[in-house]
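Milestone M4 deliverable, item 7.
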Amino acid sequence: MLRAGGSGAAAPRWRTAAEAALYGPGGFYVRPGGAGPAGHFRTSVHASPLFAAAVARLLASTARALDTDEVAFVDMGAGRGELVTGVLAAVPAGLRVLPYAVERAPRPPGLDPRVAWLAEPPSGVRGLLFANEWLDNVPVDVAETGQDGVVRYVLVRADGTEEQGPPVAGEDAAWLERWWPSAGPGTRAEIGRPRDEAWAAAVATLDRGLAVAADYAHVRDARPPFGTLTGFREGREVRPVPDGSCDLTAHVALDACALPGAELTTQREALHRLGVNGDRPPLSLAATDPAGYVRALSGAGEAAELTARGGLGDFGWLAQPVGIAPDGIGIAPNAAGHGGEGHHGESRDTEGRDTAPSGPAAL
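Output delivered:
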């Protein structure tokens, strides 16, 4: 339960506190010498090179839709450049890639010199903009419905102590009414309007091509009643405390982010369409090519993790064509899928308890 108020200086809202904790001086993501995202959680990029290879195939199909052999690849929220590095290693011969990594942290040492390291996405490019687990780290405000039925902002201090704030009003109230209506006293919501705006701005940088956001998500008819805000540190879920010591993340309302013409599907479906599946190799291969069988078996295991129900496969993929036909991008709309994953692929511990809020319920 929230406290009615605190003494001393007023506590900020969650969006302000998280912005400073993640991206301010010495913030979790930008501090010099920090481990970067890979030091604290495992995304699809870290799970298997098959993910980057699939994105490379998507880049190639985008180039075909643009009828060009020179195409831009924009890696939003690039971390330490793992995805752009993997994509460059997997692009087919003959395709010239103009790579950009968009990240607030300093450029990591040893990154391919071809990669332009930017704080903001480049404007007017033609190609693929890919945001893998970027939107979840765009800070948002948290709201809670009181016993009096009034929806108020949640304020938070650096030690994670929360307090009641003023009533939600204006554009934030309108967003909640449309996308996350209150379910009654004690329920919480994350106000996703800043993510809608961030995604629209990113898409607007493309002259032509495709923008894709891949994230753990939920939709309007299945919003979690108590929100999803959580923290991560060194591979473990922790209490969200905005002091710069941990990642601060919340699931994304991808349906609210979607612009006209967008396609919303699951990672499982998207990767299947891009040639990633967990089918085991035929046992007969073990007799004729034992080494090949072991490699194929390992690849099948990695593919299974990337597409697993209740895990990474339930992530949402939001595909936004810009000036090209949707059927030219290798991903088509899909209304199936049920989620239950937690953040960064975590789902349940060995005793079956939820280790993070559930993900997409109907993407």
